[in-house]
Amino acid sequence: MKLLSVNIGKPRPNPWKGLGATGIDKRPVDGPVSVSAPGPKGTGAVGLAGDRAYDVKHHGGPDQAVYAYAREDLDGWQAELGRPLANGTFGENLTTLGLDVNGALIGERWRIGSKVVLEVSCPRIPCATFQGWLERDGWIKRFTQAALPGAYLRVIEPGDIRTGDPVEIVHQPAHNVTVALAFRAETLEPDLLPQLLAADSLPQEIREKARRRMTR
C-alpha cells in the first residue's frame, strides 16, 4: 500500500456553484508536502500545505483535512467514462494504490511515511462542482449509485509526505461502519443511519443525523 501521488489544488473559476473559485483541480506535486491539522471549518483551511477549500460552508476543517481516493477505483471510472483520469482528477489529495479506501472503517488510522498519521472520518458527498468539473450530466446520481466515494481524513500526527510513501494501517476500531456504509446511509439508504452510531469517530453532524433517524 502506497501513495501514487500527492495532489494540490490549482484555483480555477467555479461557475457550477456560483462561487468565485474551486480547488477541485488537483495536480500531483514533486517533493515533500507538509501535513498538519487545519483550523475550524469555515476558514477554507485544509491539511496539506499549499491547498485550500473555497466552498468553506461544505469543505475544509479538521474532519475534511485530507481527501483520499484509490487508483483502482479511478481505473474503474476511467473504463466506464471512456476517458483518461489522471491522479487528482476527482479532487483527491492522495491517490492510493493497494488500499481499500471505501472499505476502510470510520476511525481507522493510516501511517503514511515515517511520521504522518491520518484517521478516516467520513465519505465524500458529490456536489454540483464535481459534476460540472467532469462535464458529465447525471454524474452526481451515477457516483452516488456506485457508492465509491473515497474518504476524508483527519490529521492525528503531522509531518511531511511524498509520492511513493508507504501506507500502513496502524489501528482499526471494533465496529463494521465502513466509508461505503456511511455514504450509503447518508445518501440513498437513510434507514442505515442508526448503524453509524457504532462509529464514535464519525463527525458530530452525521451522528446527530443518525440520532434523529432513530426517533422517527
Record keyword descriptors for this entry.
alpha+beta, 5 helices, 26% strand, globular
Distance from first to last alpha carbon: 42 Å
Unreliable sequence segments: none
Q: How would you sum up the major sheet?
A: 8 strands, mixed
H/E series, N to C?
EEEEEEHEEEHHEEEHH
How would you state the average pLDDT, rounded?
96
Cα radius of gyration in angstroms? 16 Å
Helix content: 10-25%
Strand content: 25-35%
The number of helical segments is 5
Give the overall shape.
globular
Structural class: alpha+beta
Strand order of the largest sheet: 4-1-7-6-10-9-8-12
How many strands in all?
A: 12
Q: Could you describe the 3D structure shown?
A:
The protein contains five helices and twelve strands. It is of the alpha+beta class. The strands form three sheets. Strands 4-1-7-6-10-9-8-12 form an eight-stranded mixed beta sheet. Strands 2-3 form a two-stranded antiparallel sheet. A hairpin with a 3-residue loop joins β8 and β9 (116-123). It is globular. The mean pLDDT is 96.
